[in-house]
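Before relying on records like the one below, remember that each one covers exactly one chain. Contacts with other chains, cofactors or solvent are not represented anywhere in the record.
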Amino acid sequence: MPVPVTKSAMLSVDEILRTAMREHPEAATRGEGRRVVEEVRRVLGRGPMRTPVYDPQTTAQLSVCRFRCMLQDTGYPLEVYLPPAAGTDDGDVEEDGVDRDGENMDWSRLKERWVGWAVEVPGEQPWIKQILDTTPLEQGIAAQMEDLDLARRHSPSSTSTSSPTDLPQAVHGKWPLPGAKGSYAGALIKIYDPNIAFRPGTAYEFIGILSRSRLPASSDDFLPPSIAQDSDENKEDVLVPAIHVLTEPYEVYPLKEATLASVDANVGVSAGREEVIEYLAGLLPRGESSELDRTAAEVLLLALISRVTSKAPGSVPLGTLTLDLLLPRGSTSDEGAAFRRLVAGIQRVMPLVVDVELSLQLLSQHAFYPISSHVAASASTGDSLQAGLLQLAPGTAVLVNEDTLQGGDLQDRGVRNLKALADTVRTQKLRYEFPYVSEEFGMETDLAFVVMGQGKSLLPVDLHMPLLKPDDAAHPGPSTAPNYLGIATYLVHSRAASSKLEIPANVAEFIQAEFIRLRKEGHGVDAKGEKIPVGEADLRNWMRMGRLLALMYPETTFNQEVWKRVLELDLERKMRMAAR
Protein backbone atom coordinates (compact mmCIF):
# COMPACT_ATOMS: atom_id res chain seq x y z
CA MET A 1 0.00 0.00 0.00
CA PRO A 2 1.12 3.61 -0.47
CA VAL A 3 2.57 5.52 2.41
CA PRO A 4 0.25 7.81 4.39
CA VAL A 5 -0.31 11.08 2.55
CA THR A 6 -0.36 13.31 5.60
CA LYS A 7 0.61 13.07 9.21
CA SER A 8 -2.16 13.99 11.58
CA ALA A 9 -2.52 14.29 15.32
CA MET A 10 -5.31 11.75 15.63
CA LEU A 11 -6.49 10.18 18.84
CA SER A 12 -5.40 6.66 19.70
CA VAL A 13 -7.42 3.80 18.21
CA ASP A 14 -8.96 2.90 21.58
CA GLU A 15 -10.08 6.49 22.20
CA ILE A 16 -11.68 6.72 18.76
CA LEU A 17 -13.43 3.39 19.28
CA ARG A 18 -14.92 4.39 22.61
CA THR A 19 -16.01 7.75 21.19
CA ALA A 20 -17.71 6.06 18.24
CA MET A 21 -19.46 3.51 20.46
CA ARG A 22 -20.66 6.23 22.82
CA GLU A 23 -22.52 7.81 19.88
CA HIS A 24 -23.87 4.57 18.49
CA PRO A 25 -27.33 3.60 19.76
CA GLU A 26 -26.43 -0.10 19.89
CA ALA A 27 -23.17 0.39 21.78
CA ALA A 28 -24.89 0.17 25.15
CA THR A 29 -25.83 -3.46 24.55
CA ARG A 30 -24.18 -5.46 27.33
CA GLY A 31 -20.88 -6.97 26.22
CA GLU A 32 -20.93 -5.23 22.81
CA GLY A 33 -18.26 -2.63 23.48
CA ARG A 34 -15.54 -5.01 24.64
CA ARG A 35 -16.26 -7.37 21.75
CA VAL A 36 -15.90 -4.48 19.28
CA VAL A 37 -12.58 -3.37 20.77
CA GLU A 38 -11.14 -6.89 20.55
CA GLU A 39 -12.42 -7.39 17.00
CA VAL A 40 -10.96 -4.09 15.82
CA ARG A 41 -7.55 -4.91 17.26
CA ARG A 42 -7.61 -8.30 15.59
CA VAL A 43 -8.55 -6.91 12.15
CA LEU A 44 -6.09 -4.01 12.24
CA GLY A 45 -3.33 -6.42 13.21
CA ARG A 46 -3.75 -8.30 9.92
CA GLY A 47 -2.76 -5.24 7.83
CA PRO A 48 -4.61 -2.88 5.44
CA MET A 49 -5.02 -5.30 2.51
CA ARG A 50 -6.74 -7.88 4.73
CA THR A 51 -9.22 -5.37 6.12
CA PRO A 52 -12.73 -6.00 4.71
CA VAL A 53 -13.91 -3.56 2.03
CA TYR A 54 -16.86 -1.35 2.91
CA ASP A 55 -20.05 -2.74 1.35
CA PRO A 56 -23.28 -0.80 2.00
CA GLN A 57 -25.25 -4.02 1.72
CA THR A 58 -23.28 -6.34 4.00
CA THR A 59 -20.90 -4.40 6.26
CA ALA A 60 -22.28 -4.58 9.81
CA GLN A 61 -22.46 -1.66 12.18
CA LEU A 62 -19.45 -1.28 14.50
CA SER A 63 -17.22 -3.39 12.26
CA VAL A 64 -13.90 -2.40 10.74
CA CYS A 65 -13.79 -1.71 7.01
CA ARG A 66 -11.78 0.17 4.42
CA PHE A 67 -13.42 2.57 2.01
CA ARG A 68 -11.67 3.69 -1.18
CA CYS A 69 -13.48 6.85 -2.11
CA MET A 70 -13.50 10.34 -3.54
CA LEU A 71 -14.08 13.22 -1.15
CA GLN A 72 -17.08 15.01 -2.62
CA ASP A 73 -17.95 17.60 0.05
CA THR A 74 -15.26 18.92 2.37
CA GLY A 75 -17.06 22.11 3.36
CA TYR A 76 -18.83 20.96 6.51
CA PRO A 77 -17.96 22.78 9.73
CA LEU A 78 -15.86 20.93 12.30
CA GLU A 79 -17.97 18.64 14.46
CA VAL A 80 -17.87 18.76 18.27
CA TYR A 81 -17.58 15.46 20.16
CA LEU A 82 -16.88 14.25 23.69
CA PRO A 83 -13.76 12.04 23.90
CA PRO A 84 -13.19 9.43 26.61
CA ALA A 85 -12.10 10.71 29.97
CA ALA A 86 -8.36 11.31 30.29
CA GLY A 87 -6.36 8.41 31.68
CA THR A 88 -8.98 5.75 30.98
CA ASP A 89 -8.13 2.41 29.47
CA ASP A 90 -9.95 -0.86 28.96
CA GLY A 91 -10.07 -1.43 32.70
CA ASP A 92 -11.75 1.92 33.32
CA VAL A 93 -14.85 1.33 31.20
CA GLU A 94 -18.04 -0.46 32.02
CA GLU A 95 -18.41 -4.19 31.51
CA ASP A 96 -19.75 -3.60 28.03
CA GLY A 97 -16.67 -1.57 27.04
CA VAL A 98 -18.48 1.80 26.81
CA ASP A 99 -17.41 4.96 28.65
CA ARG A 100 -20.12 6.69 30.66
CA ASP A 101 -19.95 10.07 32.38
CA GLY A 102 -23.39 10.02 33.97
CA GLU A 103 -24.39 13.29 35.57
CA ASN A 104 -20.79 14.45 36.07
CA MET A 105 -20.26 15.54 32.48
CA ASP A 106 -17.08 17.60 32.04
CA TRP A 107 -17.91 19.89 29.13
CA SER A 108 -14.36 21.26 29.06
CA ARG A 109 -13.31 17.95 27.43
CA LEU A 110 -15.22 18.74 24.23
CA LYS A 111 -13.07 18.52 21.08
CA GLU A 112 -13.49 18.99 17.34
CA ARG A 113 -13.12 16.52 14.48
CA TRP A 114 -13.05 16.90 10.71
CA VAL A 115 -16.11 15.70 8.77
CA GLY A 116 -16.63 15.26 5.03
CA TRP A 117 -18.84 13.33 2.62
CA ALA A 118 -17.21 10.69 0.43
CA VAL A 119 -18.51 8.61 -2.46
CA GLU A 120 -17.14 5.52 -4.18
CA VAL A 121 -14.68 6.63 -6.86
CA PRO A 122 -16.70 7.59 -9.98
CA GLY A 123 -15.71 5.67 -13.09
CA GLU A 124 -13.55 3.11 -11.26
CA GLN A 125 -13.39 0.05 -13.50
CA PRO A 126 -14.09 -3.51 -12.27
CA TRP A 127 -10.57 -4.79 -12.99
CA ILE A 128 -8.86 -2.18 -10.82
CA LYS A 129 -11.48 -2.70 -8.10
CA GLN A 130 -10.58 -6.39 -8.15
CA ILE A 131 -6.89 -5.57 -7.80
CA LEU A 132 -7.26 -3.03 -5.00
CA ASP A 133 -10.05 -4.81 -3.11
CA THR A 134 -8.57 -8.29 -2.93
CA THR A 135 -5.34 -10.25 -3.08
CA PRO A 136 -6.10 -13.25 -5.33
CA LEU A 137 -4.33 -16.45 -4.38
CA GLU A 138 -5.54 -19.09 -6.81
CA GLN A 139 -6.45 -17.11 -9.93
CA GLY A 140 -4.21 -14.33 -11.23
CA ILE A 141 -5.47 -10.82 -11.88
CA ALA A 142 -4.84 -11.14 -15.62
CA ALA A 143 -7.16 -14.15 -15.83
CA GLN A 144 -9.83 -12.42 -13.79
CA MET A 145 -9.79 -9.44 -16.13
CA GLU A 146 -10.94 -11.73 -18.94
CA ASP A 147 -14.16 -12.51 -17.09
CA LEU A 148 -15.23 -8.97 -16.18
CA ASP A 149 -18.64 -7.77 -17.38
CA LEU A 150 -18.05 -4.31 -18.81
CA ALA A 151 -21.80 -3.78 -19.18
CA ARG A 152 -21.73 -2.63 -15.55
CA ARG A 153 -19.85 0.53 -16.53
CA HIS A 154 -22.93 2.76 -16.70
CA SER A 155 -24.05 2.13 -13.12
CA PRO A 156 -22.26 2.86 -9.84
CA SER A 157 -20.31 -0.16 -8.73
CA SER A 158 -20.48 -1.93 -5.42
CA THR A 159 -18.26 -4.48 -3.78
CA SER A 160 -21.34 -6.63 -3.27
CA THR A 161 -23.09 -8.65 -5.95
CA SER A 162 -26.46 -7.46 -4.66
CA SER A 163 -27.86 -3.95 -4.89
CA PRO A 164 -26.72 -1.61 -2.12
CA THR A 165 -29.23 -0.08 0.27
CA ASP A 166 -30.33 3.27 -1.12
CA LEU A 167 -29.04 6.33 0.66
CA PRO A 168 -31.47 9.03 1.91
CA GLN A 169 -32.70 11.66 -0.54
CA ALA A 170 -30.63 14.33 1.21
CA VAL A 171 -27.45 12.87 -0.34
CA HIS A 172 -28.79 11.79 -3.74
CA GLY A 173 -27.27 14.89 -5.34
CA LYS A 174 -23.81 14.07 -4.05
CA TRP A 175 -23.08 11.42 -6.70
CA PRO A 176 -21.56 13.12 -9.79
CA LEU A 177 -22.79 10.81 -12.56
CA PRO A 178 -26.39 10.86 -13.86
CA GLY A 179 -29.10 8.42 -12.88
CA ALA A 180 -27.80 6.86 -9.66
CA LYS A 181 -29.90 8.75 -7.10
CA GLY A 182 -29.22 6.89 -3.83
CA SER A 183 -27.82 3.63 -5.24
CA TYR A 184 -24.15 4.35 -4.67
CA ALA A 185 -21.74 3.78 -1.82
CA GLY A 186 -21.28 6.91 0.27
CA ALA A 187 -20.49 7.78 3.87
CA LEU A 188 -19.53 10.57 6.21
CA ILE A 189 -15.81 10.45 6.97
CA LYS A 190 -14.93 11.48 10.54
CA ILE A 191 -11.27 12.15 11.32
CA TYR A 192 -10.25 12.91 14.88
CA ASP A 193 -7.95 15.80 14.06
CA PRO A 194 -9.35 19.35 13.63
CA ASN A 195 -6.19 20.56 11.85
CA ILE A 196 -6.31 18.12 8.95
CA ALA A 197 -7.52 19.41 5.57
CA PHE A 198 -8.62 17.76 2.33
CA ARG A 199 -9.54 19.11 -1.09
CA PRO A 200 -12.77 18.00 -2.78
CA GLY A 201 -12.23 15.66 -5.71
CA THR A 202 -9.27 13.88 -4.12
CA ALA A 203 -9.30 10.10 -3.69
CA TYR A 204 -8.21 8.24 -0.56
CA GLU A 205 -8.58 4.94 1.21
CA PHE A 206 -9.81 5.20 4.79
CA ILE A 207 -9.81 2.44 7.38
CA GLY A 208 -12.27 2.88 10.20
CA ILE A 209 -15.24 1.61 12.13
CA LEU A 210 -18.67 1.86 10.53
CA SER A 211 -21.40 3.66 12.37
CA ARG A 212 -24.23 5.95 11.34
CA SER A 213 -24.81 9.59 11.98
CA ARG A 214 -27.02 12.53 11.17
CA LEU A 215 -25.77 14.90 8.52
CA PRO A 216 -23.70 17.71 10.07
CA ALA A 217 -25.61 20.67 11.47
CA SER A 218 -25.71 23.66 9.15
CA SER A 219 -26.83 27.24 8.82
CA ASP A 220 -29.80 28.15 6.63
CA ASP A 221 -28.95 31.84 6.46
CA PHE A 222 -28.99 31.90 2.67
CA LEU A 223 -32.21 29.91 2.19
CA PRO A 224 -35.63 31.52 1.72
CA PRO A 225 -37.61 31.53 5.01
CA SER A 226 -40.22 29.07 3.74
CA ILE A 227 -37.53 26.52 2.90
CA ALA A 228 -35.37 27.22 5.92
CA GLN A 229 -38.29 26.48 8.24
CA ASP A 230 -38.76 23.05 6.72
CA SER A 231 -35.12 22.10 6.33
CA ASP A 232 -34.47 21.18 9.98
CA GLU A 233 -37.58 19.01 10.03
CA ASN A 234 -36.51 17.22 6.86
CA LYS A 235 -33.01 16.60 8.20
CA GLU A 236 -34.06 15.60 11.70
CA ASP A 237 -34.39 11.88 11.00
CA VAL A 238 -31.83 11.58 8.18
CA LEU A 239 -29.23 9.00 9.19
CA VAL A 240 -26.36 8.17 6.86
CA PRO A 241 -23.39 5.79 7.09
CA ALA A 242 -20.39 7.22 8.94
CA ILE A 243 -16.85 5.88 9.14
CA HIS A 244 -14.77 6.86 12.16
CA VAL A 245 -11.23 6.77 10.75
CA LEU A 246 -8.78 4.76 12.85
CA THR A 247 -5.52 5.00 10.87
CA GLU A 248 -3.74 7.48 8.61
CA PRO A 249 -5.48 7.89 5.21
CA TYR A 250 -3.78 6.79 1.99
CA GLU A 251 -4.01 8.69 -1.29
CA VAL A 252 -5.04 6.24 -4.04
CA TYR A 253 -5.52 8.23 -7.26
CA PRO A 254 -3.82 9.19 -9.44
CA LEU A 255 -2.54 5.63 -9.37
CA LYS A 256 1.15 5.40 -8.54
CA GLU A 257 3.75 3.15 -10.14
CA ALA A 258 4.17 0.90 -7.10
CA THR A 259 0.48 0.49 -6.25
CA LEU A 260 -0.32 -2.30 -8.72
CA ALA A 261 2.77 -4.33 -7.86
CA SER A 262 2.33 -3.83 -4.11
CA VAL A 263 -1.02 -5.60 -3.99
CA ASP A 264 -0.40 -8.62 -6.19
CA ALA A 265 2.68 -10.56 -7.24
CA ASN A 266 1.24 -11.14 -10.75
CA VAL A 267 1.27 -7.40 -11.50
CA GLY A 268 4.23 -5.40 -12.70
CA VAL A 269 5.24 -6.80 -16.11
CA SER A 270 4.55 -3.91 -18.45
CA ALA A 271 3.65 -4.29 -22.11
CA GLY A 272 5.90 -2.74 -24.76
CA ARG A 273 5.23 0.51 -26.60
CA GLU A 274 4.40 -1.18 -29.91
CA GLU A 275 2.03 -3.59 -28.18
CA VAL A 276 0.14 -0.70 -26.61
CA ILE A 277 -0.13 1.19 -29.91
CA GLU A 278 -1.32 -2.01 -31.63
CA TYR A 279 -4.04 -2.40 -29.00
CA LEU A 280 -5.24 1.21 -29.26
CA ALA A 281 -5.19 1.05 -33.06
CA GLY A 282 -7.54 -1.92 -32.83
CA LEU A 283 -10.07 0.29 -31.04
CA LEU A 284 -10.18 2.82 -33.89
CA PRO A 285 -11.87 2.45 -37.32
CA ARG A 286 -9.66 0.62 -39.79
CA GLY A 287 -8.70 2.14 -43.12
CA GLU A 288 -8.76 0.62 -46.57
CA SER A 289 -7.45 -2.95 -46.82
CA SER A 290 -7.94 -3.33 -43.04
CA GLU A 291 -5.13 -0.87 -42.32
CA LEU A 292 -4.66 -0.13 -38.62
CA ASP A 293 -4.52 3.57 -37.83
CA ARG A 294 -1.25 3.53 -35.90
CA THR A 295 -0.68 7.26 -36.26
CA ALA A 296 -3.95 8.13 -34.56
CA ALA A 297 -3.34 5.40 -31.98
CA GLU A 298 0.04 6.92 -31.08
CA VAL A 299 -1.52 10.36 -30.65
CA LEU A 300 -4.32 8.81 -28.58
CA LEU A 301 -1.69 7.20 -26.36
CA LEU A 302 -0.15 10.63 -25.75
CA ALA A 303 -3.52 11.96 -24.60
CA LEU A 304 -4.15 9.02 -22.27
CA ILE A 305 -0.84 9.34 -20.42
CA SER A 306 -1.02 13.14 -20.16
CA ARG A 307 -1.43 14.74 -16.75
CA VAL A 308 -1.09 18.12 -15.07
CA THR A 309 2.58 18.46 -14.14
CA SER A 310 2.52 22.12 -13.11
CA LYS A 311 0.21 25.08 -13.20
CA ALA A 312 0.78 28.71 -12.32
CA PRO A 313 -2.20 30.70 -10.96
CA GLY A 314 -4.31 32.06 -13.79
CA SER A 315 -2.45 30.15 -16.52
CA VAL A 316 -3.14 27.04 -18.57
CA PRO A 317 -1.75 23.79 -17.15
CA LEU A 318 1.44 22.15 -18.35
CA GLY A 319 1.61 18.45 -19.19
CA THR A 320 -1.92 17.94 -20.53
CA LEU A 321 -2.90 17.09 -24.11
CA THR A 322 -6.61 17.13 -25.00
CA LEU A 323 -7.50 15.29 -28.19
CA ASP A 324 -10.31 15.44 -30.75
CA LEU A 325 -10.68 12.24 -32.80
CA LEU A 326 -12.41 13.19 -36.07
CA LEU A 327 -14.50 10.48 -37.69
CA PRO A 328 -14.80 10.65 -41.49
CA ARG A 329 -17.67 12.87 -42.59
CA GLY A 330 -20.91 11.05 -43.30
CA SER A 331 -19.95 7.91 -41.34
CA THR A 332 -23.41 7.42 -39.85
CA SER A 333 -23.81 3.69 -40.49
CA ASP A 334 -22.27 2.63 -37.19
CA GLU A 335 -24.66 4.84 -35.14
CA GLY A 336 -22.13 5.45 -32.39
CA ALA A 337 -20.46 2.02 -32.54
CA ALA A 338 -17.02 3.61 -33.00
CA PHE A 339 -17.38 5.58 -29.78
CA ARG A 340 -18.71 2.60 -27.84
CA ARG A 341 -15.85 0.43 -29.06
CA LEU A 342 -13.35 3.07 -28.00
CA VAL A 343 -14.94 3.38 -24.55
CA ALA A 344 -15.08 -0.37 -23.97
CA GLY A 345 -11.45 -0.81 -25.00
CA ILE A 346 -10.10 2.02 -22.86
CA GLN A 347 -12.08 0.78 -19.88
CA ARG A 348 -10.10 -2.44 -20.09
CA VAL A 349 -6.78 -0.68 -19.54
CA MET A 350 -7.48 2.60 -17.71
CA PRO A 351 -8.44 2.49 -14.00
CA LEU A 352 -10.85 5.46 -14.10
CA VAL A 353 -13.02 6.09 -17.17
CA VAL A 354 -16.16 8.20 -17.54
CA ASP A 355 -17.93 8.41 -20.91
CA VAL A 356 -20.16 11.41 -21.68
CA GLU A 357 -22.59 11.34 -24.58
CA LEU A 358 -23.47 15.00 -24.98
CA SER A 359 -27.13 15.74 -25.56
CA LEU A 360 -29.54 18.61 -24.98
CA GLN A 361 -31.26 16.54 -22.31
CA LEU A 362 -28.03 15.87 -20.40
CA LEU A 363 -26.90 19.50 -20.64
CA SER A 364 -30.29 20.78 -19.50
CA GLN A 365 -31.04 18.36 -16.66
CA HIS A 366 -27.76 17.36 -14.99
CA ALA A 367 -25.25 19.78 -13.50
CA PHE A 368 -21.69 19.54 -14.82
CA TYR A 369 -20.23 21.57 -11.94
CA PRO A 370 -20.82 21.45 -8.16
CA ILE A 371 -23.53 23.74 -6.81
CA SER A 372 -24.13 24.89 -3.26
CA SER A 373 -27.56 23.91 -1.99
CA HIS A 374 -27.97 27.57 -0.94
CA VAL A 375 -27.96 28.42 -4.64
CA ALA A 376 -30.24 25.49 -5.46
CA ALA A 377 -32.51 26.53 -2.56
CA SER A 378 -33.56 22.95 -1.91
CA ALA A 379 -34.75 21.90 1.51
CA SER A 380 -34.37 18.22 0.69
CA THR A 381 -30.62 18.53 0.22
CA GLY A 382 -29.88 20.51 3.35
CA ASP A 383 -26.82 22.76 3.49
CA SER A 384 -24.20 20.96 1.39
CA LEU A 385 -22.40 20.76 -1.93
CA GLN A 386 -24.31 19.06 -4.72
CA ALA A 387 -21.98 17.20 -7.11
CA GLY A 388 -21.38 17.96 -10.78
CA LEU A 389 -20.59 15.55 -13.62
CA LEU A 390 -16.99 16.76 -13.84
CA GLN A 391 -16.25 16.40 -10.13
CA LEU A 392 -14.00 13.40 -10.72
CA ALA A 393 -10.89 11.89 -9.16
CA PRO A 394 -7.42 12.74 -10.53
CA GLY A 395 -6.36 10.55 -13.43
CA THR A 396 -9.88 9.99 -14.80
CA ALA A 397 -10.13 9.59 -18.58
CA VAL A 398 -13.18 11.53 -19.80
CA LEU A 399 -14.39 10.32 -23.21
CA VAL A 400 -16.88 12.68 -24.88
CA ASN A 401 -19.14 11.80 -27.82
CA GLU A 402 -20.25 14.97 -29.63
CA ASP A 403 -22.18 13.19 -32.41
CA THR A 404 -25.05 12.62 -29.97
CA LEU A 405 -25.56 16.39 -29.59
CA GLN A 406 -28.51 17.36 -31.79
CA GLY A 407 -29.81 20.81 -32.69
CA GLY A 408 -32.28 22.63 -30.45
CA ASP A 409 -32.67 25.32 -27.81
CA LEU A 410 -30.04 25.32 -25.10
CA GLN A 411 -31.45 26.80 -21.90
CA ASP A 412 -29.49 28.70 -19.25
CA ARG A 413 -28.35 25.59 -17.36
CA GLY A 414 -27.19 23.98 -20.59
CA VAL A 415 -25.15 27.05 -21.50
CA ARG A 416 -23.54 27.08 -18.05
CA ASN A 417 -22.80 23.35 -18.27
CA LEU A 418 -21.19 23.70 -21.68
CA LYS A 419 -19.08 26.60 -20.44
CA ALA A 420 -18.00 24.58 -17.40
CA LEU A 421 -16.96 21.69 -19.67
CA ALA A 422 -15.02 23.98 -22.01
CA ASP A 423 -13.30 25.78 -19.13
CA THR A 424 -12.30 22.50 -17.48
CA VAL A 425 -10.84 21.19 -20.76
CA ARG A 426 -8.84 24.38 -21.21
CA THR A 427 -7.75 25.20 -17.65
CA GLN A 428 -8.15 21.94 -15.68
CA LYS A 429 -10.16 23.88 -13.12
CA LEU A 430 -13.81 23.16 -12.32
CA ARG A 431 -15.86 26.08 -11.10
CA TYR A 432 -18.17 25.87 -8.09
CA GLU A 433 -21.39 27.83 -7.85
CA PHE A 434 -21.50 29.39 -4.41
CA PRO A 435 -23.34 32.50 -3.27
CA TYR A 436 -21.30 35.70 -3.26
CA VAL A 437 -18.21 34.22 -4.88
CA SER A 438 -16.77 34.75 -8.37
CA GLU A 439 -16.81 32.17 -11.15
CA GLU A 440 -13.06 31.68 -10.65
CA PHE A 441 -13.79 29.86 -7.39
CA GLY A 442 -13.42 26.12 -7.89
CA MET A 443 -11.35 22.97 -7.64
CA GLU A 444 -8.21 21.92 -9.50
CA THR A 445 -8.66 18.86 -11.72
CA ASP A 446 -6.38 16.40 -13.50
CA LEU A 447 -8.49 14.78 -16.22
CA ALA A 448 -7.56 13.33 -19.62
CA PHE A 449 -10.10 14.50 -22.22
CA VAL A 450 -10.65 12.65 -25.51
CA VAL A 451 -13.47 13.85 -27.77
CA MET A 452 -14.90 11.95 -30.74
CA GLY A 453 -17.20 13.20 -33.50
CA GLN A 454 -17.48 13.89 -37.20
CA GLY A 455 -17.07 17.65 -36.93
CA LYS A 456 -14.33 19.64 -35.22
CA SER A 457 -15.02 19.74 -31.52
CA LEU A 458 -16.72 22.77 -30.04
CA LEU A 459 -14.40 22.34 -27.03
CA PRO A 460 -10.97 24.02 -26.83
CA VAL A 461 -8.92 20.86 -27.47
CA ASP A 462 -5.19 20.91 -28.24
CA LEU A 463 -5.15 18.59 -31.28
CA HIS A 464 -7.64 17.55 -33.96
CA MET A 465 -6.73 14.06 -35.23
CA PRO A 466 -8.68 12.86 -38.32
CA LEU A 467 -9.16 9.10 -38.43
CA LEU A 468 -8.79 6.93 -41.52
CA LYS A 469 -11.86 6.44 -43.69
CA PRO A 470 -13.27 3.16 -42.36
CA ASP A 471 -13.33 -0.02 -44.35
CA ASP A 472 -16.88 -1.41 -44.44
CA ALA A 473 -15.67 -5.02 -44.39
CA ALA A 474 -15.97 -7.04 -41.19
CA HIS A 475 -12.68 -7.59 -39.41
CA PRO A 476 -11.93 -10.56 -37.17
CA GLY A 477 -10.75 -9.83 -33.66
CA PRO A 478 -7.23 -10.64 -32.47
CA SER A 479 -6.37 -14.35 -32.42
CA THR A 480 -5.19 -14.08 -28.82
CA ALA A 481 -6.54 -11.96 -25.99
CA PRO A 482 -4.63 -8.70 -25.53
CA ASN A 483 -2.35 -8.35 -22.55
CA TYR A 484 -4.78 -6.03 -20.75
CA LEU A 485 -2.88 -5.93 -17.49
CA GLY A 486 0.47 -5.32 -19.18
CA ILE A 487 -1.04 -2.45 -21.18
CA ALA A 488 -2.63 -1.01 -18.05
CA THR A 489 0.71 -1.21 -16.24
CA TYR A 490 2.44 0.55 -19.14
CA LEU A 491 -0.09 3.41 -19.03
CA VAL A 492 0.22 3.78 -15.25
CA HIS A 493 4.02 3.80 -15.36
CA SER A 494 4.19 6.26 -18.27
CA ARG A 495 1.76 8.65 -16.66
CA ALA A 496 3.51 8.52 -13.30
CA ALA A 497 6.91 9.19 -14.89
CA SER A 498 5.84 12.53 -16.39
CA SER A 499 6.84 14.48 -13.29
CA LYS A 500 10.42 13.19 -13.56
CA LEU A 501 11.01 14.19 -17.18
CA GLU A 502 13.59 16.88 -17.93
CA ILE A 503 14.71 18.43 -21.22
CA PRO A 504 18.51 18.55 -21.51
CA ALA A 505 20.04 21.96 -22.30
CA ASN A 506 21.52 20.79 -25.62
CA VAL A 507 18.12 19.47 -26.73
CA ALA A 508 16.44 22.75 -25.79
CA GLU A 509 18.97 24.63 -27.94
CA PHE A 510 18.37 22.19 -30.82
CA ILE A 511 14.58 22.70 -30.59
CA GLN A 512 14.99 26.47 -30.62
CA ALA A 513 17.13 26.31 -33.75
CA GLU A 514 14.69 23.87 -35.39
CA PHE A 515 11.74 26.14 -34.67
CA ILE A 516 13.51 29.12 -36.27
CA ARG A 517 14.29 26.99 -39.32
CA LEU A 518 10.73 25.72 -39.64
CA ARG A 519 9.35 29.26 -39.33
CA LYS A 520 11.34 30.11 -42.45
CA GLU A 521 10.97 26.90 -44.45
CA GLY A 522 7.54 25.71 -43.32
CA HIS A 523 6.50 22.35 -41.88
CA GLY A 524 6.40 20.38 -45.12
CA VAL A 525 4.13 21.11 -48.10
CA ASP A 526 0.40 20.53 -48.55
CA ALA A 527 -1.44 18.86 -51.44
CA LYS A 528 -1.19 22.07 -53.49
CA GLY A 529 2.57 22.21 -53.09
CA GLU A 530 2.46 25.17 -50.72
CA LYS A 531 4.49 25.42 -47.51
CA ILE A 532 2.63 24.61 -44.30
CA PRO A 533 3.14 27.65 -42.03
CA VAL A 534 4.44 27.31 -38.49
CA GLY A 535 3.35 29.45 -35.54
CA GLU A 536 3.71 29.64 -31.78
CA ALA A 537 0.69 27.34 -31.31
CA ASP A 538 2.59 24.65 -33.23
CA LEU A 539 5.57 24.96 -30.92
CA ARG A 540 3.34 24.62 -27.84
CA ASN A 541 1.74 21.48 -29.25
CA TRP A 542 5.11 20.02 -30.27
CA MET A 543 6.49 20.55 -26.77
CA ARG A 544 3.39 18.93 -25.23
CA MET A 545 3.67 15.97 -27.60
CA GLY A 546 7.43 15.66 -27.17
CA ARG A 547 7.30 15.50 -23.39
CA LEU A 548 4.68 12.75 -23.57
CA LEU A 549 6.34 10.87 -26.42
CA ALA A 550 9.56 10.69 -24.41
CA LEU A 551 7.65 8.80 -21.69
CA MET A 552 7.01 5.94 -24.13
CA TYR A 553 10.66 4.95 -24.21
CA PRO A 554 12.58 3.15 -21.44
CA GLU A 555 15.20 5.87 -21.13
CA THR A 556 12.51 8.55 -20.66
CA THR A 557 14.54 11.38 -22.19
CA PHE A 558 13.50 14.16 -24.54
CA ASN A 559 16.13 13.86 -27.28
CA GLN A 560 16.49 14.76 -30.94
CA GLU A 561 14.95 11.47 -32.09
CA VAL A 562 11.83 12.19 -30.05
CA TRP A 563 11.63 15.66 -31.58
CA LYS A 564 11.86 14.27 -35.12
CA ARG A 565 9.09 11.76 -34.36
CA VAL A 566 6.89 14.60 -33.04
CA LEU A 567 7.31 16.48 -36.33
CA GLU A 568 6.43 13.35 -38.30
CA LEU A 569 3.28 12.71 -36.29
CA ASP A 570 2.12 16.30 -36.48
CA LEU A 571 2.82 16.56 -40.21
CA GLU A 572 0.70 13.46 -40.85
CA ARG A 573 -2.05 14.98 -38.73
CA LYS A 574 -1.93 18.26 -40.65
CA MET A 575 -2.01 16.47 -44.01
CA ARG A 576 -5.13 14.59 -42.94
CA MET A 577 -6.75 17.82 -41.77
CA ALA A 578 -6.03 19.45 -45.13
CA ALA A 579 -7.55 16.48 -46.97
CA ARG A 580 -10.88 16.59 -45.10
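Residues 269-499 form a domain with the Rossmann fold fold (CATH 3.40.50).
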